[in-house]
Amino acid sequence: MWVIKTHGESFYVNHVSADIPWSTKETPNNERTKGSIKFKECLLTIDPDNNATISTLSVFDKIRLRNQKLGITRIIFNWGSPIHKALSNNELKHSPFKNVEGGCGTSFIICDLLKKEEATLAALKYQGWRILKPNEAYYQAYDKKGTIWEEAELDEDED
Q: Phi and psi (nearest 5°) for 14?
């Protein structure tokens, strides 16, 4: 069993692999350990088998982790759904809408709920949406170039 410490948390894993450079810090006065291995600007990923991989931290990873700490929740939903109407009426604080295309001509709207408490409230109150995980293509599509919908543009299309 290996212990990985990051941002004040300890993770106990079966195996550790790293694809980036590292340095050592010796702790000769410590009775339990001789030292530690240090990584800078790294991303820790733990798979379902409890194996850790340490890799390079990208700009998108930094933003995602910062947003996660702030309680920002990325969601996906259909146009015209109850959650869409609530967001359009500014019942919940959110980022701009972005249209993404799915398979077979489907399209979805993605945005970030900016308050963690509001994500919990929305889960209880509205149906027809779900929280996206960072490894999903739709989650990553929001960060890429594409169409950001403004509500006024959507209303004009209805007329």
A: -80, -35
Residues in the chain, how many? 159
Structure tokens at 38: 């240090």
Neighbouring C-beta atoms of residue 20, cutoff 10 Å: 13
Q: What is the largest CA-CA distance in the chain?
A: 75
**C-beta atoms surrounding 149 within 10 Å:** 15
pLDDT digits (tens, 9 = 90+) for 67-124: 777 888 999 999 999 999 999 999 999 999 998 887 787 889 999 999 989 999 999 9
The DSSP line for 45-60 is: EE-TTSEEEEEE--HH
Q: How far apart are CA 97 and CA 80, in angstroms?
A: 13
Fold (topology level) of 62-158: Alpha-Beta Plaits (3.30.70)
Q: What are the domain boundaries of the chain?
A: 2-57, 62-158
Q: For residue 4, give both structure tokens.
A: 């990985």
Using alpha carbons, select from 121, 108, 41 the residue that is nearest to residue 73. Answer: 121
Rg of the chain in Å (alpha carbons): 21
pTM: predicted TM-score of the whole model, two decimal places: 0.61
CB 44 within 8 A of CB 6: yes
